[in-house]
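HUMAN: Can I see a protein plus its fold?

ASSISTANT:
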Amino acid sequence: MGHDHAHTSQTNRARLSVAIVVVAVVLVVEIIGAWLTGSLALLADAGHMFSDLAGLIIALTATVVAARPATDRQTFGYQRAEVFGALLNGLILVGVAVAVVIGAVGRLVDAGGNEVRATPMLVVAMIGLVANLAALLLLRPAAGSSINMRGAYLEVLGDTLGSVAVIVAAGVILFTGFMQADAIASLVIAGMIAPRAFVLLRDVLRVLSESVPADTDVAEIRRHLLDTPGVVTVHDVHVWMITSGAHVFSAHIVVEPDVLSSGRSGALLDSLSECMAEHFDVDHSTFQLEPAEHAEHEENPHR
């Protein structure tokens, strides 16, 4: 399991490194394109791209830090660095969305002074779309295994959709002369950024508040554990995440008297751990086995 995690971390770092190079090149192209064409939509997409570049660098740094081994001071290791990286990414996205909205509204109010060169705007947007699609395909396989990688993937996905919006705006301007399409496209880009930022920040909050993972049913876990031979009751159940894919579980297990007296506690612990790993994808589980008389006088027992 440790080897697989290390291999996954190395693969994620390689994917992020390539994506960083792709996004950095497109960012430079879009900034130059926005300056040459006068397009706010391109500038908005470049701003979004800049936040994504910063986010990807943060994500890469987080994967390196998260791979460090556990210590006596960091007993779970540094896996939660990925969560803090995702938090910073989400905050950057919020800032970019607000800035784009302010700029777009300003252009809509002052419609007469904004001339946009549609043809070079279209060319630059097409280049951005191709590059974003390449980065998107590169990051997609890792998006489901890490909150940090999911944040990076969502950022590049937003850039891809942003490039589409710029292409549409350039086409409208080219064929109709409707310059307001540029500002409208900027608002569309901001509208795509905001929900992604919300989702990412929501997931980060769930981890940092040590909420039960969204895909975990505590009642079902309790039922599984109670079906294990030798188990009488289950209480003081806790389930949380260190980061995406790293679930942690603990519980107090009241057992039948002969489990402890006959020395079957080790076998029971193995069965409980295998149950959590097999049915709930929890590799780190802790159980306190106790006789009924101990559970009865525990202070502040809870479910």
